[in-house]
Amino acid sequence: MHVEDSVAMGTKLGKFVKKPDLKQIFMFSAITWNRHAIHYSRERAISEGLPDVVVQRALIGNFLAQFLDQWIKDVGDVQRLEWKVVRSAIPGDTLTCTGVVKKEIIENNNKLIECDIEMVNQRAETIAKGVGTVRFYTR
Amino acid sequence: MENEISREALKLIGVEKQRKYVVTKKDIRRFAQAIGDPNPLYYDEVYAKTTRFESIVAPPLFCHSVAFEDVSPEQLPPDGSPVEADVPIPAKRMVGGGSVFENYIRFKPGDTIVVKAKIKDLYTKQGKSGLLYFIVHETCFYNQNNELAAKETATFIKRI
Questions:
Q1: CB–CB of A57 and B96 under 8 A?
Q2: Which residue of A has its CA nearest to B100?
Q3: Chain B residue closest in CA terms to A64
Q4: Which CATH number among 3.30.1330.40, 3.10.129.10, 3.40.50.300, 2.40.30.20 corresponds to the domain B7-159?
Q5: CB-CB neighbours of A36 under 10 Å
């Protein structure tokens, strides 16, 4: 059964866990050519009032996109992702993504599903929240 | 007024910068590794041919790899933060606030990405620990056929 066949308002998307470490934060800074010191210098990050080197806004977005992508598998695509970082994520955190189906839209014969999504850390503190829209392709 | 944004800063709104890149398999593979995504669609050509894409494609938010202008280190602010948020405002400490990313066409190896970027808005809000400056930056990513493949509206937050 395809994912879209079992989707209804309120359906939970399951859980998706990421554990970013210093190496991943470094690799993401490198691949995005992000030279901002708060992503590699603990001293600098703390001097700016942050708890440690912080996970990039864009890497958090990529984790959320991956969460949606592995949920829809190969029958759809992430069309839109809106997220707001509300708390810093730091190396060693366990970040859990969850989501719930909010709305179904039919557009050009394709089904779009809008989901509320959230990322929390190991203390259940919200790191990011937003809305993801996935597009299922016509079979 | 304390929260007034200078004319000098406001003049930067709408000033568009443009640049171009060619996507390679290596770019896609390295980006997928950096985000920790093991999906063979990004690495394995034989597998990718069996999918609806019929080729390796980039992850949905791959355009993040070309979202920051590759200026020399000397052109960056002292904290190394992206020039996209380098505006003359009396605040230095920056964090990423949030984003809206629209994804229409997945890039494949050999595609060209044309990046068109500009500051869309500048505004202030009173935060718990003082005034916050918001820099809203819009980046559109076109392919070689001049089709809009992706668009991101990112918000950077600066504090004094």
A1: yes
A2: A82
A3: B61
A4: 3.10.129.10
A5: 23
Supply φ then ψ for residue A114, to 5 degrees: -105, 130
- Number of helices (H) and strands (E) in chain B: give both, helices first: 3, 5
Residue with tokens 């500048």: B122
DSSP percent split of chain B into helix, strand, coil, nearest 5: 20, 35, 40
Over the stretch B123-143, which tens digit does the pLDDT of each residue have?
Answer: 999 988 889 999 999 999 999
Percent of chain B with pLDDT over 90: 89
Residue B13 in tokens: 């709104």
**Domain assignments of chain B as residue spans, ordered by start:** 7-159
Could B99 and A137 be called an inter-chain contact, meaning their C-beta atoms sit closer than 8 Å?
Answer: no
The pTM assigned to this predicted structure is 0.95
Number of structural domains chain A divides into: 1
Q: What is the CATH number of the domain that holds A71?
A: 3.10.129.10
The boundaries of the domain holding residue A80 are 3-136
Neighbours of B128 (CB within 10 A): 5
